[in-house]
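Researcher: Go.
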Amino acid sequence: MSLRIRVIAPDRTVWDGTGQEIILPSTTGLMGILKGHAPLLTALDIGTLRIRNESGDWSPIALMGGFAEIEDNQITILVNEAQKASDINAEEADKALAEATTRMNSASTKKEKIEANLILKRARARVQTKSLEKV
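Model: Structure:
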């Protein structure tokens, strides 16, 4: 028996399948989940979800925050936004990261810094997710 994994965004189901293992970007750090994991509800940070499928290959997905529930080898991940690595354009992601870095460096007020940091974290997550894609 394997893990049943569903990643659900407000507008669509991003992933619905099985896997042997996942690595979640929780708000307290990366968290690995294997078959037989104890029940858990955790908040997710902006970052990369990694799903190891039955053949051992990894599928990365950029997550933009949300929650994950683990119970009876079923993992339900509810997210604000998600994007598979295959759907990310590398050039656009790199450009967005450069723009976000510039914005962060030029932010002067506390509000601007908070907003710029969020944009930067999202851009980094997309670049990292794309870099993990199996070529």
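Model: The chain has two helices and eight strands.
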